[in-house]
Amino acid sequence: CAAGVSFQSMAPDSIVMIEQWESIAHLEAHLQTPHMKAYSEAVKGDVLEMNIRILQPGL
Predict the structure, then answer these.
(1) Half-sphere exposure of 29 (CA within 13 A, CB side)
(2) Which Gene3D superfamilies match (predicted)?
């Protein structure tokens, strides 16, 4: 991840993370790493859904 910041949204049951990746391929590779797979397994009982939104840079 080239840059990132996470913060708690106004909804007490939501977490928003904003990250900047070099490419979608880099993000996809990161999601397949052992530590991310372990994290997903560890929190699966607490996470009801996950949404990833791909944004484009502005002006």
Answers:
(1) 7
(2) 3.30.70.100
How far is it, in rounded angstroms, from Cα 29 to Cα 55?
18
Categorize the per-residue pLDDT at 6 as very low, low, confident or very high, splitting at 50, 70 and 90. low
| Domains of the chain and CATH, by start | 3-43 (3.30.70.100)
Strands (E), the chain: 3-8, 15-20
Q: Cα angle vertex 40, ends 39, 42, to 5°?
A: 60
Question: Which two structure tokens, joined as six digits, stand for 32?
Answer: 């397949």
